[in-house]
Write a structure and sequence with these properties.
Number of strands: 17
Structural class: alpha/beta
Distance between the termini: 52 Å
CATH architecture of the largest domain: 3-Layer(bba) Sandwich
Strand content: 25-35%
Radius of gyration: 21 Å
Oligomer: single chain
CATH topology of the largest domain: FAD/NAD(P)-binding domain
Largest sheet: 7 strands, mixed
Length: 363
């Protein structure tokens, strides 16, 4: 009998265990992961004053920290120095390995596929292809059952990325956060992360009502063609649901976290800081009381933003452009990092296109 079984060696589960086992070192914990292979991709997060220090709390190091960002649409290009804040990008595989290595003496792990999960009155039974396990509680970062989403105004953030080695030296101190492309049906933009003078990640992202990878691949290929590159280093792709109805849910003994637990910020897909902060807040919480609560005002603003992108995708770039063109970039970053103060919220409301947001609100 285990005290806790964690299904999936995902980021949210490891962040939680990193904090929780510091204060509950006597727990018997099992991780069940179906594959030894760790996905190769990049994740990003804001860092700076007042924000959770990921290096200090979790020992993870950024591959690159950008003090400069750029936002662009057809009408304007915005270049911002965001110091003392930074936009950090991390190698997901390295992050998972770093956190797991710090836990390997505190947990057991098996590589097997979960077949079924059955919750009983006083335990949870987990059946895999090879074994059967029992536990007091279960945490899952993979979907055990589909949520019923009430709001059909749902978007998907889906992306295709290619890290390339280029032949000519490239300016590498600025993150091209959102360079918008013309589209009336989706919010469409390129997101470029230069790692050094010779390597850069080119990512093409869409916020759409449906996922159209074939069309996105064609657009991405055109974006790659603008670079004189020597070789492809690696590729990545993914889908993140964008819905305010994709919420945390749990039963008496089964706790869903990560994407399926509503950890991803509905308006942006950002999840790393949310999961890391939640783990610290709950490091002393009894497993029977473990919940994830969204901030109501942020959730309300995210809902308006999603409706604006849903109904007016061709105009959505103006929301981001005006937001990042604000003189107070710190308020924007704190808002995106999920820790805004009241005056940050006021400034955000003042620096968004009123007509689009009001029309989205009354839709």
């Amino acid at each position: 009998m285990y005290d806790l079984i964690v299904i999936g060696r995902g980021l949210s589960g490891l962040l939680f265990l990193k904090q929780y086992l510091d204060t509950h070192s006597d727990l018997k914990v099992l991780i069940i992961e179906k594959s030894k292979k760790i996905e190769s991709r990049y994740i990003s997060s804001w860092q700076g004053p007042g924000l959770l220090d990921l290096k200090k709390e979790y020992g993870i190091h950024a591959d690159k920290a950008y003090k400069k960002i750029s936002i662009r649409n057809e009408e304007i290009t915005i270049n911002k120095n965001i110091s003392p804040y930074s936009y950090n990008t991390y190698d997901y595989k390295h992050v998972i390995e770093t956190i797991f290595n710090s836990l390997k003496d505190k947990v057991e792990i098996i590589y097997d596929q979960v077949i079924s999960v059955k919750e009983m009155y006083n335990e949870v039974n987990v059946k895999t292809k090879k074994h059967t396990f029992k536990s007091q509680y279960l945490i899952s970062s993979t979907s055990l059952a589909k949520q019923t989403l009430k709001n059909n105004k749902m978007l998907f953030q889906y992306f295709v990325g290619t890290k390339i080695q280029i032949k000519d030296n490239h300016k590498h101190d600025t993150c091209q956060l959102m360079h918008f492309l013309q589209s009336n049906n989706e919010v469409l933009f390129n997101y470029n992360l230069p790692f050094d003078q010779k390597s850069i990640l080119i990512e093409t992202t869409a916020f759409g009502k449906k996922v159209h990878f074939e069309d996105l691949e064609k657009i991405h290929k055109k974006s790659l063609a603008t670079f004189n590159f020597a070789k492809i280093i690696k590729k990545e792709k993914g889908v993140i649901p964008m819905s305010v109805d994709h919420k945390f849910h749990r039963t008496a003994r089964i706790i869903n976290i990560g994407l399926d637990g509503g950890f991803a910020r509905p308006s942006s897909g950002y999840m790393l800081l949310r999961a890391a902060q939640w783990s610290i807040i709950n490091r002393n919480t009894n497993l029977k009381d473990l919940v994830f609560k969204e901030k109501k005002l942020i959730s309300f603003l995210d809902k308006i933003f999603l409706k604006a992108c849903y109904y007016y995708p061709g105009l959505a770039s103006s929301i981001f452009v005006k937001l990042f063109n604000s003189n107070d970039i710190a308020s924007v970053i704190r808002f995106l990092a999920d820790i805004p103060k009241l005056y940050d919220i006021v400034k955000i409301l003042m620096n968004t296109p009123k007509k689009i947001m009001i029309n989205a609100l009354i839709k």
